[in-house]
Input
Amino acid sequence: MITSLQNDKVRAVRALQAQRRTRQRERRFVFEGTRLVEEAVRAGVPPDFVLYTAPVEADARGNVLLTSLREMNVPCHAVNEAVMVACSDTQTPQGILAVLPIPTHPAPERPTLTLILDRVRDPGNLGAILRTALAAGVEQVLLTPGTVDASNPKVVRAAMGAHLHLRIVTLGWEAIAAAVAGSDVWLAEASGETPYTAVDWTRPVALSVGGEAAGAGEQARALAGGRVSIPMAAGVESLNTATATAVILFEVVRQRGKNGE
Output
């Protein structure tokens, strides 16, 4: 059992949890909690190693998970509670975490649904958007340099495994423009002139969404061919970024599903 905070694996986890530059340099991040680690197993993505506490192994669900990980030849190391608390990014650790390689997904050759996120700085919002994007069939999520790091622990937890299945990349605006060439680009704004239900989302499209604090920047506005809005009750200025994105993306799902009937 690992009991020292000076253990190499413990130090590696703590650095990955705390430092963006470490995650970017090593191309690794941390999945924390039973559900997320289970998702890695279901996706067939073997962690580099796993840390767990005794109660997890004693629990039926945890024992099944550890057995699956060992069958994948993943090194699993027992740690005491103090070490798990030191390694965790949550106030109430679930007793298991995994260090995984950050997946690299190829760019779609002819994307039909792209999401561009500009200056979305709240980790919880970004994670929720990524989870929604996966559910809505988004093929790639393009992040501008002003957007929070997608490997941030809070983003990873909120995304609930979306990182394993979804292309998520940070690009400059020139590269973003190239990535959505051939798609209609719509910018979501409260003052947008086109209601979101009036857009033909069955075409190859890119939806651009800005953060709550500052909204989309000038480069996002320049790239967009039109601006789309969500009608709201009088006196309401805007929706939460993640909520607004979900509303529009599931209109895409509705239209494409209806079109395929």
Summary: The chain has two domains: 8-101, 113-259.
